[in-house]
Amino acid sequence: MRNKFKAMFAAAAVATTSTSVQAEDKKVNVGILHSLSGTMAISETSLRDVLLFAFDEINANGGVLGKQINPVVVDGASDWPLFAEKAEELLVGDKKTAVTFGCWTSVSRKSVLPVYEKYNGLLFYPVQYEGEEQSKNIFYTAEAVGQQAIPAVDFLLEEGVKKFYLIGTDYVYPQTTNLVLHEYLLSKGVPAENIGGGSTKDSKGKVTSVGNYTPFGHSDFQQIVADIKKFSASGDAAVINTINGDANVPFFKEFAASGLKSEDCPVVSFSLSEDEFRSLPAKQLVGHLGCWTYFMSIDSPANKKFKADFQAWLKKTDVTGVVKEGRVTCSPMVLSYNGVYLWKKAVEKAGSFDVDKVRAALQAGISFDGPGGTVTSQKNHHLTKNVFIGETLENGQFEIIETIPNVVGEPFLKGTFEKK
Amino acid sequence: MQKLHQVTLTILFLFSMLSFSSADTADKEARTLLSRLILGEKDNQESALDALDGNGSKIIETFYKVGRVGDVYKCANDDGSFTVYYKDGEFYYNLLDGNQVTEPDNLEKARLGRSAKKKLSKLADFVYIYSPIDQERIDAVHKFGGSQKPEFIELIRRNIDKQPNENLKQAFQESLEISLLKNGTHEEKLNAISYLSDMGSSLSVDFIKAVKLDSEAVLNDEAAEEEVKAEASALTKASDEALKSIESAEQKKELVQSVFFGVNRGSVLLLVSFGLAITFGLMGVINMAHGEFIAIGGYTTYVIQGWFASAYGVDSAAYEWYFVVAVPAAFMVSAFFGVIMERGVIQFLYTRPLESLLATWGISMVLQQLIRLYFGAANVAVASPTWLEGNVNVGGYTMAYNRLIVVPVAIIVLLVTALLMKKTNWGLHIRATMQNRLMASSLGIRSSRVNMMTFAFGSGLAGLAGAFLSQFDNVGPMMGQTYIVDSFMVVVVGGVGNLIGAALSSLGIGVIGQLLEFFYGSVMGKVGILFGIILFLQVKPGGLFTSKSRSLED
Q1: What's the whole-model pTM score?
Q2: Residue A294 distance to chain B (closest CA, Å)
């Protein structure tokens, strides 16, 4: 009924304006800024797909404020400075966009941040990150450390885990996450010697880095796994894994080959979602844990509809480069999708595409019932959402073993935990 | 090997059945309880798990093993009741009577909850402690000892003397002493500390630390009696010394372990770079597509694994042997691509090495893109056969089979190539051609054919490396890129044109790299080794072994 009304209204509007302006007037440009080539393409292409799906879904239902979304897709090409250039393209120039959905790696986000602040643009960022940042021009639909690492550690502590081994790839997200976790574990009464992986201190005795780090694409985990085996020999140990990308394969192969089992020493991974499992031998990961704000296995009508609609869209879409077979949904995808709808609602509430007005609407709190449950935007540009802890199954899906509802997103956690 | 294992296992199992008259009833009871665990309500499940305590039937271990990977099923009967089945290997069994059955219709997966799995894992240890596999026994007894529960002391103690070898006896004694650290009398605690300290037990460090903390707490306690304090002070002193001595023993052990890891890493490097040592080192083709030949080997393994999985099913005995087929196939397929590349491009470029660099680089990109088009951009998952999973413990050093196997393979490849080069006619022809193509052909050697075969051999070796890499590393379109730098590094450090040099340099880079990683972590390890190589090449620009030549251009 409402749609009909809208359509009539639009038709009336069309009748009164000249044809050349109509087409422009009925459309709003929306930017997608992801790597469609280079090393990150494997992960980021999925986000482009789900964003296009969300746009089509919205357009089919009458668009935003009566305007059809016109996607402007640009390729960051896994090249961080290029991200900034492409962001500028989206913010000025003839294809000026009202909002951008994009970025995966923290370094790409850091690269475009000054651009969005300079031109007062609006960016929705969908991938788990380390926090310690809050720009007025970015909305972080992503999991903050408090929505992933902290609940996971709480769960393990409840399970009776006493020793934690921290391991990650050497860059900003694992380093920062582990520093926060280190503080958190100490505040929970875990003694420093029960936090494995080593730590470095500066000359004043302040801890500057905790955990064992490997370069990107590391493939020889013999030493690290031997160290974990020794560490976990006394029992009640767990591994907190922030290794990124395909280095997880040799790690888990080595882990399993050394005789370590998930029952004795579970590994909680923060960077392995259903999408990554497409290229992992799941057998070695069975029983290990994951923590996200969405799992494909969530049993809710909203999620079922989302999955079915996405698969249907995949079938009929004619966008080039969309992989149609064996597709799964995962947290970064759903957080991208949620972002689009939050933006739509905010625009409708503000009654305008103006960035300042939309921001004010989002800051006041917009809720959306997404596939992973209700998400609500907060004043600090993060989201309140449900957190799930899942156990890996042999088919690469997760069985949800714990749900923590309505966890508030808080970017600044470093230094907030008192040492006991 | 696998067969033999199964036979011994069965014999041992039968033997244990005979020796315990109650084993049969225990087995029956365990099966009933496990079935209740799957079919019962929540309370019922918990009580079933509790009732399994101390049962120790073989079926618990089997059930745990299949249950943790989701191979337990239930199936509705006509009367509305359920029967539980499990799948062990390729066959289905009825849980209650243990009989093998043909795959029943409408099987429904029955999931074991996380807590049930954890509990079962503990229960399975009662079986593993009698396992015919030493390592399983050791892991189990260590867990009993590490739990420090007084009820297990008797179990460990009465089994010490039954252990067939020293290694096992020591593991049992170690576990007993660890348990006594908490549960023993003062004398026993002191003895335990000295025993563990003497054997340099790394496992016991945390437990000795706990003793130290406890006794320090007593020392600081004003209200404690003098006698208690004296005991505590003796314990503090003993544990302090023990910790120091274990730590120093530990460091030595880990140093040796790093060297082992280094030998392993070196073997991987050798396998990966040996093909290049031939195509680049001997033939002088700067082969930038070497990495892609490795990837082709990896993908061949993946494809063959897929064939075996679809033809025989992943649980069948035949599937286990896919790797044996994949290794020669990987060699052949990569060699085939090598022939095409040599005939198509390289043969025109022998006199123009720099152009061969550009051409092979282009080919490498084409091959990468072809892989992407055909197999997709994402990595593919290659599963290891069971006989390559697991590990072996040699003198306290754990080594994974999938990596260990690379060491003998690298040695074999080295020996075969050396024999080929030095002892056969073909080798003679190769050496002659590589020294001087024109001269060799004027002496009647079909140099173009020799070139082709040598290039194919080098490419084939890269494929072979890819097959072995697939067992512990990623298989993806970019797979070759991660190894091409390492390969050139090995060949250049070893001295271009020298196969023994390549072997020594990969061993050196492997061991030094692992030692650096041991001391400074993996990031600095990698930086250190690159820096070291740059310095080394300043001193010896020709690498370890420089080929002596009278020609002017060298």
Answers
A1: 0.84
A2: 20
